[in-house]
Specification:
Radius of gyration: 20 Å
Shape: globular
Helix content: 40-55%
Strand content: 5-15%
Structural class: alpha+beta
CATH topology: Arc Repressor Mutant, subunit A
CATH architecture: Orthogonal Bundle
Strand order of the largest sheet: 2-4-3
CATH class: Mainly Alpha
Number of strands: 5
Number of helices: 7
CATH superfamily: Winged helix-like DNA-binding domain superfamily/Winged helix DNA-binding domain
């Protein structure tokens, strides 16, 4: 478990998921939600419950403990509240990546990886659904809800690329993501945007038959 650190703690740029136990921990939709919140701002468990509309905050302590044990988050402040030590948590990194060596090579690892993929895309679909419902319910005031010209993009495409071209594309995509502002402070002139992407070979490369 991590030690308490200063409230001025700043997350590192990237945290690499290096073992299956950590992959299993993050392959849970609720824990993904908690981590995303803590990537934006420090929170106590009670504050996280309020942010996620969870009525009973005690249901979150188990998830927070697992995230802390595997160093996805850490304590950045503590204070006594009515005689009880209350901890404030923060994500340890601005982004998280799975080590290439951990990508599935056997059925057990495949199952763990797919749980993470499912959790990520379920959360994305729910966020899109909430946005569409909100916009539909405020159709008469759409300009205020999402100002005209606000950037958004949903797309799916297929490509035929060499390994070198695929590596080059991924590198450029990472550079674009890293170029985005790291300031997560909300503001009256800011909208919160989401980014979910998957880039992968649809079918394995079959070597040509030997003559």
């Amino acid at each position: 478990m991590t030690d308490t650190v200063s409230p001025t703690f700043e997350p590192i740029d990237v945290f690499y998921i290096k073992n299956l136990d950590a992959l299993k921990v993050i392959s849970d939709r609720r824990r993904l939600q908690l981590l995303e919140k803590l990537m934006q701002h420090p929170y106590t468990v009670k504050q996280l419950a309020s942010e996620l509309a969870v009525e009973d905050s005690t249901k979150l302590y188990y998830h927070v403990r697992l995230l802390e044990e595997h160093e996805f988050i850490r304590v950045v402040d503590t204070q006594l509240v009515s005689g009880i030590l209350e901890k404030t948590y923060r994500a340890t990194a601005r982004r998280y990546e799975v080590e290439k060596e951990l990508l599935p090579n056997n059925p057990a690892e495949y199952s763990d990886a797919m749980q993470l993929v499912n959790a990520m895309f379920e959360e994305t679909l729910e966020e899109l659904g909430r946005l569409m419902e909100y916009v539909s319910a405020h159709a008469d005031d759409a300009e205020r809800v999402i100002p005209r010209g606000t950037a958004s993009e949903i797309a799916r495409r297929k490509f035929h690329l060499t390994h070198a071209q695929a590596d080059e594309f991924i590198q450029k995509l990472r550079e674009v993501v890293l170029s985005l502002p790291t300031d997560t402070t909300p503001g009256p002139d800011k909208l919160e945007f989401g980014l979910t992407f998957a880039f992968f070979p649809i079918s394995p490369h079959e070597p040509p038959p030997q003559e």
